[in-house]
Write a structure and sequence with these properties.
Elements: E1 15-23, E2 26-34, E3 39-43, H1 50-58, E4 65-70, E5 73-77, E6 82-83, E7 91-95, H2 106-111, H3 119-132, H4 148-160, E8 166-170, H5 178-195, E9 199-203, H6 206-212, E10 215-220, E11 223-228, H7 230-235, H8 240-245, E12 250-260, E13 265-270, E14 277-281, E15 290-295, E16 301-303, E17 314-326, E18 329-335, E19 340-345, H9 347-353, E20 360-365, E21 370-373
Parallel strand pairs: 3-9, 3-10, 7-8, 8-9
Antiparallel strand pairs: 1-2, 1-4, 4-5, 5-6, 10-11, 12-13, 12-15, 13-14, 15-21, 16-20, 17-18, 17-20, 18-19
C-alpha cells in the first residue's frame, strides 16, 4: 500500500492536549501533540506515568485538570466539565496482552468493533484487514490456533477496523521474540502512515523508539523531561539523566587536552591524568574543561590485534576482565589501563574469537561514536 502524505493542516487527524492527574502520592503532568500519520513515543522507566497518560487519553482515567482533543473533537475539558466516555472517543488501544476474544475466530475478532456497519460493509472491512495483515486462510481459526505473531496482527487489525482517529500502543511487542518484534513494528509503522492515523507508543526498547518514532518524549517521575528527535535524543543523548536512563554503557569523566578545529575533533584524557586518550567530535567546550564522554557498547569493535589502515581514531589496548550474557549477545568488559569499557558482541563473534577473561584485545571505535554528556 502506498504511503499517503499528511500535512500539519490535516486537523481532522491531530491529537493534542495536556493533563494534570494525581492519585495517592503520584502525580502526572504532561502535554503532547501528534499529527496524522506520525508516531510519538513515550520513553521512560516503569512507574513514570506513561501508561497512565495513555489511559487518560483513552478515557479510562479522569484527570483533575486538562483538555484532550482527538481529531476535530474535544473529548475532555476540565474547565467546562466535558468528559466523553471511552467508547465514544474513537481510539484504538493495543497492549502487549492483545486480549483477543478466545471464543471468536480471527474474522470475528476483527469484526467486533464494526457492529454499526452493514453486513456487507463489515465483510468488506474484515477482508481488507485480513489482506493487509497477511491473515489469509486464518479467518476461521480461534486465537489459540494461531501463532503469537498472528495473534498480534489480528489484534492490530481489530484495533484499526473501526478507523480510529488515534492509536494508543502500550508496549505491544514486548512479549514477542526479537526478530518477530522487528518485523511487526515495521508493518505497524507502515500501516499507520498509510492510514494517516496519529499514534502514541509506550516502550522501554530504545531500538523500537528510534526505528518507529517521529518524535519522542522522556517521562520520568510523572514529568516530561527532554523531547525531540528520537535518534538525537536516544542515540547520542546529550543530557546525563537521559544517557543513564537509556542505558549508555560507557560514561567516562575526562578533561579536554586539545582542540583541533581543522579536523572537527578534540582530544580528551582521563581527569586523573592517566591514559588512554580519546578523540571525540568538536564541541562548544575549551581546552581544560571537564567533560563526560559517552560511548555505546554496541559502537565498539573488538580486535585480537592492533588494527592498521583503519579510519577509526580510537584504538585502545586492554585485557578482558569480564564476559557475561546480555541478550541478544554478550557484554565484554575490557580493562584499558584502569578504564573499563563495556562492549557488545554477538555469540558468533564470541565463539569465533574464543574470548575469555584475561585475553588481550583492542577496542576500536570512531571519534563520531563518542558524544559529550552534560548533567
Amino acid at each position: 500500500m502506498t504511503t499517503q502524505p499528511y500535512t500539519r493542516q490535516d486537523t481532522s487527524r491531530l491529537s493534542n492536549g495536556w493533563i494534570s492527574y494525581r492519585v495517592g502520592q503520584f502525580s502526572l503532568a504532561a502535554q503532547w501533540e501528534v499529527e496524522a500519520g506520525q508516531l510519538l513515543t513515550l520513553f521512560g522507566p516503569s512507574g513514570a506515568g506513561k501508561t497512565t497518560l495513555l489511559r487518560a487519553i483513552a478515557g479510562l482515567v479522569r484527570p483533575q485538570e486538562g483538555s484532550i482533543r482527538i481529531g476535530d473533537r474535544m473529548v475532555f475539558d476540565s474547565d467546562s466539565g466535558l468528559f466523553v466516555p471511552p467508547h465514544r472517543r474513537r481510539v484504538g488501544f493495543l497492549t502487549q496482552g492483545h486480549h483477543l476474544f478466545p471464543h471468536l475466530t480471527v474474522a470475528g475478532n476483527i469484526a467486533y468493533g464494526l457492529a454499526r456497519a452493514t453486513p456487507a460493509g463489515r465483510q468488506r472491512r474484515v477482508a481488507e484487514l485480513v489482506e493487509m495483515f497477511q491473515l489469509n486462510g486464518l479467518e476461521q481459526r480461534r486465537p489459540d490456533e494461531i501463532s503469537g505473531g498472528q495473534q498480534q496482527r489480528a489484534a492490530l487489525a481489530r484495533a484499526l477496523a473501526p478507523s480510529p482517529e488515534l492509536m494508543l500502543l502500550d508496549e505491544p511487542f514486548s512479549s514477542l521474540d526479537i526478530e518477530l518484534r522487528r518485523t511487526l513494528r515495521g508493518e505497524l509503522r507502515e500501516k499507520l502512515r498509510a492510514a494517516a492515523i496519529p499514534a502514541i507508543l509506550v516502550t522501554h526498547d530504545i531500538e523500537e523508539a528510534i526505528s518507529m518514532a517521529d518524535q519522542v518524549q522522556i517521562i520520568e517521575g510523572g514529568q516530561v523531561g527532554a523531547a525531540g528527535n528520537p535518534l538525537q535524543l536516544l542515540g547520542q543523548p546529550g543530557q546525563g539523566r537521559v544517557a543513564r536512563l537509556v542505558g549508555v554503557e560507557n560514561l567516562i569523566p575526562m578533561v579536554v587536552t586539545s582542540v583541533q578545529p581543522q579536523d572537527g575533533t578534540m582530544v580528551c584524557a582521563r581527569q586523573d591524568g592517566g591514559s588512554p586518550r580519546l578523540e571525540v567530535p568538536l564541541s562548544d567546550v575549551a581546552q581544560g574543561d571537564q567533560v563526560t564522554v559517552g560511548i555505546r557498547a554496541s559502537d565498539i569493535i573488538l580486535s585480537d590485534s592492533e588494527p592498521r589502515g583503519s579510519s577509526a581514531r580510537n584504538r585502545l589496548p586492554g585485557v578482558v576482565s569480564d564476559v557475561r550474557l546480555r541478550p541478544p549477545g554478550y557484554q565484554v568488559t575490557l580493562d584499558c589501563g584502569g578504564l573499563d569499557l563495556s562492549c557488545h558482541i554477538t555469540g558468533t563473534s564470541l565463539n569465533e574469537m574464543g574470548i575469555r577473561s584475561g585475553d588481550s584485545l583492542w577496542a576500536v571505535f570512531k571519534a563520531s561514536s563518542c558524544f559529550l554528556v552534560r548533567d
